[in-house]
Please model this.
Amino acid sequence: MTPSLQRLFVLLGAVFILTGCNTADRLASVGKAPNLSAIDDPTASPDYRPVRMPMPDPVAVSHAPNSLWQQGSRSFFKDQRARQVGDLVTVKVNFKDSADIANETKRARSNSDTMGVPNLFGVEARKETYLPGSDPNKLIGATSTSASDGSGSVKRAETLATNVAAVVTQILPNGNMVIEGKQEVRVNFEVRELIVAGIIRPEDIEADNTVESMKIAEARIAYGGRGQITDVQQPRYGQQVMDIVLPF
Model:
């Protein structure tokens, strides 16, 4: 047996062993409810990573005598709207786009040219010597015909309605705020991602600390997924490479 066949059998054996263990566990759970995960300390997990977000500069709190005002407060009456780096704002994504475009172009052209030299310094009298069987009145003739017909159409309809919380990451010199938010939802083996980023004005933030997506300048909204379903819907890597490399 060649070494390559030996490696193949070893690999197949390992696959069968792993599959058998998984099958045995599933058979042992027949008729039983799935077990819930135990409540553990999330910071003790090997994959735990502390969250680091942009934060405003610290402001020293001082109390003035005989005054209800507190140094560093946003306003006398508490305002929950985002105003500084690190604050949260809810973006109401309401995206509805539709387009219906149809174009058709037709073009045709036909040309016909004939040129003759009935008199050329007497050479036409000896045409049988120089050009036997030719007619001086029809020495050159050209005919060309071209036609083109092109058509194209675009019909698209997209709708997206959801909410996502974003973080204020920067305050611009004119007071506008740069926000960015990301949301991930995993169902079984598929992860859905929603990313929102852009620039908003403080005046566009409503009293409930929400802002419409249509009021975001330089908006970047991405909605997609990754997982088993998305992987099946995509062509294989080899096919994608061939589509890029092949010129035909």
Q: What stands out?
A: The first helix runs from residue 3 to 28. The first strand starts at residue 88 and ends at 115. The chain is about 20% helix and 40% strand.
